[in-house]
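User: My collaborator sent over this chain with a note saying "see what the structure looks like." That's all I know about it. Can you take a look?
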Amino acid sequence: MSSIKIATTQNEVIDLIKNRWSPRSFSAKDISQATLETILEAGTWAPSANNSQPWRFIYALRGTAGFDKLLATLAPGNQPWAKNAAALVATIGIRETPDTQQKNHYYMHDVGMATSYLLLQALEMEVYGHIMAGFNKQQASEVAALPANEEPVSIIALGYIDDAEKLEEPYKTRELTPRSRNPIATIAAHLD
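Assistant: Without extra context I'll predict from the sequence alone. Here is the result:
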């Protein structure tokens, strides 16, 4: 039986947010191209300054050479479980617009917004995502043949959730540990 970790919140947060978490146990079920394209399109509808959309997504499906290339960029601690994901998606930030060479000082924020939309759409379709910062950026840039004005920001493992019991340690314990967040009082302050 798969593990679902629903957040216990202080306030009435919508279920889609309470249900979003980052599993490591993925099933053998493949993601269809249509499902993946829907998930990726959701990312395009995130807010961005003047609709600049300073992001790209480079993806590969399990069982392809591209998947193996992205998997090889991951840190050794991510590879043992990420190899079972149905897809790997590299999120790419565009530091300056190619046509005007104008720097975008908020591109990382915008990539994060696009990633959050992507993850929420995925969850709505019962596809889970696990974002990873543990990867070799230089190697990912080379694999994706990125131009100088672009950089990899994260790699997301996407797939259908599976039983935590199939994971080796320390991943199994991490999968089963209850979720927690800082209380509102520690992250927000009312300005008088």
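A starting point for your reply to your collaborator: The two ends are 49 Å apart (CA to CA).
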